[in-house]
Give the backbone structure.
Amino acid sequence: MRATRAVGILGLVALLASCAPAQTDNDASGADKMTGTLRVWLFSEVDQEPKEDVVNQAVDEFEAQHDDVTVDVQYIPVDTRAERFHAAFNDPSSAPDVAEYGNTDLAGYVESGGFADISGELADWDQYDGIAEDVADTARVGDGTYGVPWFLGTRALYYRTDVLEELDREPPETLEEVVDTGRAIREENPDMLGMSAGGDYTYGFLPFIWAHGGDIAVENGDGYTSAIDSAEARDGIRQYSEVLSPDVCPPQTCAQMDGNASVQNFIAGEAGMTIGGNFNLNAVDDSDISDDYSVVPLPGTEPGSIAPPFAGGNNLGVLSGTERRTLSVEFTKLLAGKKYQREMYEAMGNLPTLTGVQEEIAESDGRMEPFIASLDSGSRFVPATSAWATIDSGAVLPSMMQRIASGDASVDESASEAANELDDAFAEG
């Protein structure tokens, strides 16, 4: 599941938090069979054949290495994943042994008892050391590790090279310069958005908050406490609100826009800049502006710094009810390992999680360098709690930004209100 898709449908996982009872008895009863059928769930894709080809290679290799083992792969729709996993957690006999899942869904799945902690098995896997700590954290809840990060989606700053050349400007080196450049673009080209970035673009504006030293929330014992109204977070919110202004991206156009719409404006030639993902590269290359754009890391508050990006992506995990734990972990390691991460990149454009593979890709495909540089600078993630599903489906953070953009509330007022809503969600779990 690419990161853009994960953002739009996160709310579905609220079914797990609100409907699924806490699972306490769905662990396998000590069984660890080394033969039979290993069931695997992966997400279906719009263009699925290249993914299937790579997975089939991994299946053939695994079956050749394991006598009397058959790997049965099913591709499930992303938009029904909440219901499918909900049923699987409550009926292990119908559940897969291994599954692909969106990393922002994990906390709810762990709360439902659905995935196994495989920390022990990963401790002696040398390839796991090639995953940066901030990326590895996307598969962790509390002290447990519930899978292997399989691929990532991260964002950087797309800009029109021809437009900046006409203005005799270099790419922005700070967030302040991002805003100033957006103003200059729109002043010179009134029919163009200086920067296309919407109020409903959570993973577009969070880097502004993180770059200023702010955060969504901080850990407090076993839970979280909101930090969105801290002085640092408000500085980031205030700077992003300058983007959602008539002289950069008018609120009547931009306040309700999400990430997809933000990028589509750029692809259509209607914006001078946008915050887009590595997963948007092919679409831009297929557009009329393919020869007139470039990408740099979204800068931070100081020249030479990079705003921390959100580390969206998908992981591979082992279901807690499996009767084939050893085989499940071995297949997870194979499919999430170096060989098939590279193969999946070649087939689907998925950004690998292993730093060694990232370095190889950066050398062979210069388009990926800004995204890898952004990850190398240190990525960030949402609070690892099932409450995130409630927060996301309730649009707490976009509503905060939209109220500011529309003039319904000041930065201080809207941030304080959002902080209260976050704390309510954290308290309810």
About this structure: The first strand starts at residue 36 and ends at 43. The two ends are 25 Å apart (CA to CA).
